[in-house]
Amino acid sequence: MTLRPILIHPDPRLKKVADPVARITPEVETLAADMLATMYDAPGVGLAAPQVGVNLRVFVMDATKDPEASPRPMVLVNPEIDWLSDELNSYEEGCLSIPDQYASVTRPRQVRLRWLGLDGATHSEEFDGLWATCAQHELDHLNGILFIDHLSAIRRQMITRKMVKLKRDQARA
Predict the structure, then answer these.
(1) For 41-72, what is each residue's pLDDT tens digit?
(2) Count of structural domains, the chain
(3) Any domain includes 116
(4) What contacts 168, CB < 8 A, 6 or more positions away?
(5) How confident is the model at residue 169 (pLDDT cuts 50, 70, 90)?
(6) Residues annotated as part of the active site
(7) CATH code for the domain in which residue 104 is found
(8) Is the pTM of this model over 0.85?
């Protein structure tokens, strides 16, 4: 497993719609393993392939917050939403591509996804709470949408300016 560098906003690769995965290959399996390692190392609860510069419809997540609970790493290939609840939930979201910036985003409280697993089989599961927020946030990444796109234009511009400064400072270091 290799830790992959995470792209920082603004980066045009983060705004592209990711391409579907034609089939599960050893390269996709390696990508998934690298993404899980990168996500845990960051640390984060989700990571989409475009965030590591790979334009494929793959994301990983593990929204297990209880330190006593066993990790539940998930790899979702070509995920699609089957159903969204009418009930909404607001959550203070952050993003590994927008470090140290958080904002409340309102999304459906529950979501059911269908996806291809690394085993080649189709899976379906209903997610709630943080898992649902994470799944929707990562699916947004696959569609070229960042969590700041759900904010007001002024808030989005403020955060983007901070990220431009961060990238400039990193380039100087």
Answers:
(1) 999 999 999 999 999 999 999 999 888 999 99
(2) 1
(3) yes
(4) none
(5) very high
(6) 138
(7) 3.90.45.10
(8) yes
